[in-house]
């Protein structure tokens, strides 16, 4: 069960109420979450390294929540606050839409057959006109880390790459090359490395897949490291998201979670720009963002859960958990 830390100040602001620790604990319980710990960076450092090391550390109160293993939408502040706001009837569940780009020309990722024996699948999308703040940026990076640790199984099933679209040019090509043919500047490094040298730095994978833009700029070497050239900054306005995978189902879920969580910060909230992936199997448009319709019957549901509620009460309860009707 993953644990997510959110600042008390941030969640109270998002919920438009100053909760006491006890009140927030009760709200989490009602929603189905567990408030595991109330702490701060300062307290954590004191506990592990002593007071001397903690001088100058952030004393902001942090709520650490235990998140159910299948609730990837609750791995960031955006998802937690959105879920709680709907639960509290402060907002309706958002409707997520995948739209064609205003230019009429989708970003394209071409999957070369050479990737078949390494990481054969890829998905892509664009977050257009997003606004980052330091807090949003940190949350964006942390969500990717949480997805990598959990759903993506330490990048073995899915590797996420996010790039400043204004620094690169499509169409993009995903291929597998001999390590001596790959050379680029990895994220937060000062010089270029060959893939052989990179494996000495990042020895968690023996494979050498690589993604290039139309000008030969390397975006990433999944699942090892992203490139420095296209890294996201606070000034980034347009984000190109690519994910390579050995499991297509997990890739689609990871893409849906990332774009639905952070499309909140786009000029057109909850609208995601489509991208196309051309693989040896054909063309596919992402994100798919599938909705499905389910019918539930009050007597059967009451019997299974062990309650006795009316159709309207059940429908209202489901609506508070982000099910639309």
TrEMBL record:
Residues 118-267 form the B3/B4 tRNA-binding domain. Pfam families: B3_4, PhetRS_B1. Signal peptide: none annotated. It is an enzyme of class 6 (ligase). GO terms for cellular component: phenylalanine-tRNA ligase complex. Its EC number is 6.1.1.20. Its cofactor is Mg(2+). Keywords: Aminoacyl-tRNA synthetase, ATP-binding, Cytoplasm, Ligase, Magnesium, Metal-binding, Nucleotide-binding, Protein biosynthesis. The keyword Ubl conjugation does not apply. Its main location: cytoplasm. InterPro entries: B3/B4_tRNA-bd (IPR005146), DNA-bd_dom_put_sf (IPR009061), Phe-tRNA-ligase_IIc_bsu (IPR045060), Phe-tRNA_synthase-like_B3/B4 (IPR020825), PhetRS_B1 (IPR040659). It catalyses: tRNA(Phe) + L-phenylalanine + ATP = L-phenylalanyl-tRNA(Phe) + AMP + diphosphate + H(+). Coiled coil: none annotated. One of its GO terms (biological process) is phenylalanyl-tRNA aminoacylation. SMART domains: B3_4. GO terms for molecular function: ATP binding; metal ion binding; phenylalanine-tRNA ligase activity; RNA binding. It is found in: Cytoplasm. Belongs to the phenylalanyl-tRNA synthetase beta subunit family. Type 2 subfamily. Tetramer of two alpha and two beta subunits. This is phenylalanine--tRNA ligase. It comes from Bugula neritina.
């Amino acid at each position: 069960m993953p644990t997510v830390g959110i600042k008390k100040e941030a969640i109270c602001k998002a919920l438009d109420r100053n909760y006491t620790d006890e009140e927030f604990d009760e709200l989490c319980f009602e929603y189905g979450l567990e408030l595991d710990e109330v702490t701060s960076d300062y307290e954590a450092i004191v506990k592990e390294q002593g007071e001397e090391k903690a001088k100058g550390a952030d004393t902001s109160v942090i709520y650490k929540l235990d998140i159910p293993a299948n609730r990837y939408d609750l791995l960031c502040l955006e998802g937690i606050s959105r879920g709680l706001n709907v639960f509290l009837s402060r907002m309706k569940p958002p409707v997520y839409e995948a739209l064609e780009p205003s230019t009429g020309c989708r970003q394209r990722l071409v999957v070369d057959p050479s990737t078949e024996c390494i990481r054969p699948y890829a998905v892509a999308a664009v977050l257009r006109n997003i606004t980052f703040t330091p807090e949003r940026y940190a949350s964006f990076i942390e969500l990717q880390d949480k997805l990598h640790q959990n759903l993506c199984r330490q990048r073995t099933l899915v590797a996420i790459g996010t790039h400043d679209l204004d620094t690169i040019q499509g169409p993009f090509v995903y291929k597998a090359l001999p390590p001596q043919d790959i050379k680029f500047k990895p994220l937060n490094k000062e010089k270029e490395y060959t893939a052989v040298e990179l494996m000495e730095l990042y020895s968690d994978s023996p494979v050498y897949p690589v993604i290039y833009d139309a000008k030969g700029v390397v975006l990433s070497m999944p699942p090892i490291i992203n490139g420095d050239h296209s890294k996201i900054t606070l000034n980034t306005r347009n984000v190109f998201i690519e994910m390579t995978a050995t499991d297509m189902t997990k890739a689609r879920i990871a893409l849906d979670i990332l774009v639905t969580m952070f499309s909140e910060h786009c000029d057109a909230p909850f609208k995601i720009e489509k991208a196309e992936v051309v693989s040896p199997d054909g063309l596919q448009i992402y994100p798919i963002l599938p909705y499905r319709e389910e019918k539930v019957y009050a007597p059967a549901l009451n019997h299974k859960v062990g309650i006795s509620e009316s159709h309207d009460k059940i429908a209202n309860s489901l609506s508070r958990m982000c099910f639309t009707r």
